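Is this the right way to post structure tokens for a design question? Let me know if I should format differently. Anyway, here goes:
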């Protein structure tokens, strides 16, 4: 059966691989502490972020710190989106790459978010996209990592919900971090 990749999940297995990709990307960026939990059964977002992810406005926080935090979160979510589709396409489906149409759609969503949330210029957005794309590509194009990524997706499917600490433990056991 020739299954095509879309931005919408085709089934529960597809969701598990997408979720695995997102968690792995945060681990690769040393930001696994930003996840409070993940849940395959969530009706809304499958990832619940920890308090350190969210902006907590305070007059005592410098504007530069606030800006840096906002840009870092944009970078992390961009990496998660790209890693989601790469894990699903390259690991789950065994493709050599993500279809260009999917990448174009993802890039447009990332551009929109960069413009609306961070007021970034197109060249700044493209630099972040390129950096996240290179990082995700290094992970998901490496066939030696595919068995561990597949096992992590199976763990998610079996356990259904994992805390941030459980994710870190599982990724450590699989030697992904």
């Amino acid at each position: 059966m020739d299954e095509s990749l879309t931005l919408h999940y085709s089934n529960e297995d597809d969701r598990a691989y997408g979720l695995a990709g997102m968690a792995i990307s945060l681990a690769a960026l040393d930001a696994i502490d930003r996840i409070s939990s993940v849940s395959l059964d969530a009706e809304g977002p499958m990832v619940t972020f920890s308090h350190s992810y969210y902006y907590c406005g305070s007059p005592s926080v410098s504007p530069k710190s606030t800006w840096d935090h906002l840009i870092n979160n944009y970078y992390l979510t961009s990496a998660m989106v790209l890693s989601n589709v790469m894990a699903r396409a390259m690991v789950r489906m065994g493709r050599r790459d993500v279809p260009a149409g999917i990448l174009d759609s993802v890039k447009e969503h990332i551009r929109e978010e960069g413009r609306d949330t961070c007021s970034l210029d197109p060249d700044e957005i493209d630099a972040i996209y390129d950096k996240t794309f290179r990082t995700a590509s290094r992970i998901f194009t490496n066939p030696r990592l595919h068995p561990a990524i597949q096992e992590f997706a199976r763990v998610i499917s079996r356990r259904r919900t994992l805390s941030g600490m459980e994710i870190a433990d599982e990724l450590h056991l699989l030697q992904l971090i």
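Format looks fine. Someone answered above. Worth noting: The CA atoms of residues 89 and 171 lie 20 Å apart. The mean pLDDT is 91.
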